[in-house]
Amino acid sequence: MRRPNHYSHAFTVSKSNVQSIFMVAVALIVGTFLIIAMLTTADNTHRFSSSVLHDWTKEAQSDWFIHLLGVENRYYLDAMQDTSTPSLTTTVIELATNMNLNDPRTFLGREIPGFSGFDNTLVIAGQGTDFTNMAMESPPPSEEHQYEQPETDGGEREGTVDDDPPEIADEEPIIHLLHSHSRESFLPEIEGDDPNNQEINIVQVGNYLADQFREYGLPVEVSDHDIQQKLNERGWDYSQSYEMSREILEEDIEKHDELEFFFDLHRDSVEREHSTATINEEVYARTFFVIGEDHPDYEQNLEMATEIHHRLEERWPGLSRGVMTSGGAGVDGVYNQDLSPNSMTIEFGGVDNTFEEVYRSADAVAEVIQEYIYEELER
Asked: Where do transmembrane segments lie in this chain (predicted)?
């Protein structure tokens, strides 16, 4: 009489257990990679906030979030052209490696020097704006222009402003205008081909914009410091421009208690084809709004920039190039905007624009911002 073969049954159970153990091991490995990715992408200076969650999930497919919401509310799925479920494998790879299979920038950014400059997020793209022509930081001034430059004739040019702008007496300023890259200039307005001029530069745009705000009854403080000269005096690098301008900001904030709205004015580095628009048969230098996302409350700054962009586009379609956020390695990522929720960086035109074109845009920006400010003050 043959004995029952218990070994066959034992082998079957053992194989099932091995499969279960293997799946658990895979899940643990994937989970470990996810935890490591989240821990290494979070800045130590950040508290647990919506901005941190944004950093952890920004590489994941947005379709997954919509599908998760669609489980509870089918209207989300009805609005999608493609209702198929996104690939789970692709999503896991993106979360674990911070590489988006649909975005080659995530593969190349860590390998090619300077490529990280394209890592900024284009929140709102204006007409003709894409990743190839987003706002770019101006390069540092060439060595021969870092120190004292010969004085210019300072003659009146078309579109320039008075040296003695009207002042509003007995009123504390509520608007602060700053120029962290104070020597950014415009090639048609200067001699030579180095767009970093000590005398004729973006500071004149700030003075002009301040005059427009004063015409609307808004008191303004303009910081017309030569930041580059201050950097030279301390032996600081050009990349420390925002550290220098922060000292100025903090001093002015301590001096003027009523300061509430802060605008850092810059000139973009893009060519004329991207920085110029013809609207109602008039030529404008286009604007770009930049928000630093490396501080916890940047969403408030982004909300203001988005609102100003939309208001500009309603009246002057094509004037705004859009809104973008900037952060991560290789950039400042804060731009002193953590000092106030009503703070943003405004790029006026590019290296090939004229003061006349820039001032025309400043008129439009002043009209829109003053309305926004008065609405905020009435709340």
From this structure: 21-42
